[in-house]
Each structure stands twice: as structure tokens, then as C-alpha cells.
Amino acid sequence: DGHGAGNRGAAARHSPTIDMASMLLEISASVIGFTDTPAGHTVYNLSCRVAAEGGVGRKTFVVDRRFSEFQEMHAEIQQMLPSIPASFPVSKTVFSSEATKRERVDKFQDYLRAAVAAAGPAPPPALLRFLGVDVSKIEEAVAAASRGEPAVAPSRCAPEPESEPLGSPFGVVSAPSSSDTNEALRDGIKGDNAADCMRLLDAKADPNFRDRRGDCPLHLACMFNRQQVVKALLEHGADPMLKNAAGELPTKIASVTLRMKIDKFQSTGKF
């Protein structure tokens, strides 16, 4: 069909034929924390978004990766992406304290941001595997769009009949609009976007919701030292006495200055 081929060509743009192998991708990835597993391992939590060029088939999901998986991925992509360091820039120790793990979160974030930027819209397969990207899902969305079919991404106007299971290739996908708002609040905190966080709180995002690692928004805001967001969360009803899955209060992972501000708010109602 000439008309369908033309549509698919417009979607691919950079390919004269309908070649899904050359499909361009829009990817963002953030290292948002870490989890100590019952087996004694530490995994680092990645929040990823991927879509075909133009936002077609956008998916948001979470994957967990161990230190060794970062190293293995780096070994595979370094020759393809010469702008990233030749040696993996994060050191590994036999014993790692909580402070060391938090420091690694920042270092992994810097590394991953550089790798994704260096890869551009055509990431190496090793990077896609590491991020947990199932390109076939994006290909299906692009093919549907080229046929003029509506996108199957989650809608904010109506809930999906069923969300994807935890073990799916795209990890956790929020279905109801309230869950989307809460996930967006979490992303706003990690992305240092205070304006978005304020808007989402005003739009009734839950200031006490727990993510899949058991952290509340206040834990994340304290971890990343987002003072303006901490203030807004408290004013919108965030409970500073809620503990995360590790049994920590937000104040335990807050800076000294931020801890004092939270204590002041609890006693006086003023930040």
C-alpha cells in the first residue's frame, strides 16, 4: 500500500525504506536510588522512558541493576561510544556503607546520562538491554501509528482496562491517572523540577504514596536535598513520621539543615 508506506516513511524519517532496525529512539534514564535485597546484594534502581522519534509508543518503567551489570554494559558499549570514559568511572569496594551507595547513585546517574547522550537516537543493543528496553513494543506502536491506528499508551482521560504485570519487559507501568500523577511527582523530585512538583501536588498527587521500593516523596526529596519540594510536601500533608522499607524516617537521610527545618515545621507549622 503506497499510502501506508508513505506514513511509515514519515514516522521513520531518516530511512528511505520501512526499516525498523533503523528506527530512532528517544530515551531518558535516571538512577533514582538503591535497594538491598534479602540475598545480600545491592541493586540500583533506574527509572526509564523510551519512545520512537516524536514520542510514539512512549513507555515509562523501572529496572534494577547490580554494580557488575553496569560494568558489563560499559565494557560492551565503550568502543562504540568513545566520548564516554575508557575505564568505568565508579569504583567498587568489598564493603559499602549507606553513604557510599548514595554517592554511587549520583555517580551512576552522571555516567548513565553521558552514555545515553553519547548514544543518541540509535543506542547500541547492549545499552538497550541494560535499560530493559523491549524495542518490539515500540516497533508495534510505530507500525500502528503508520496505519493511522490510535496509540495504546496509558491515557490520562480514561483508565486502562489492565496494567502491565510487574514482570513485563517494561517493569511497572501505572494505569490509573492518580498513579500517573504520583509517578510524575516522583520523577519531578528526582529531576529537580520544583515547579512540576508544586503543580502535581495542587492536582492532588498523594504526598504520602509509596513507590515500589517503599520510599515516600518526602524520603526522595530529603535524599536529593530538594528543600523547596520538602516544604511543599509538608504543607500538602506529607507525614514526616512515615518510614521507608529500610525503616528510615525522612529526617534520617536528610541534610542537617533540612532536618532542622522539618523539625521546626513539626513543632511550629512553619518551614
UniProtKB/TrEMBL annotation:
CDD domains: PX_domain. Residues 149-182 are annotated as: Disordered. ANK repeats lie at residues 213-245. One of its GO terms (molecular function) is phosphatidylinositol binding. The keyword Repeat applies. Keywords: ANK repeat, Repeat. It comes from the Eukaryota. Residues 22-138 form the PX domain. SMART domains: ANK. PANTHER family: ANK_REP_REGION DOMAIN-CONTAINING PROTEIN. This is PX domain-containing protein. It comes from Phaeocystis antarctica. The lineage of its organism: Eukaryota, Haptista, Haptophyta, Prymnesiophyceae, Phaeocystales.
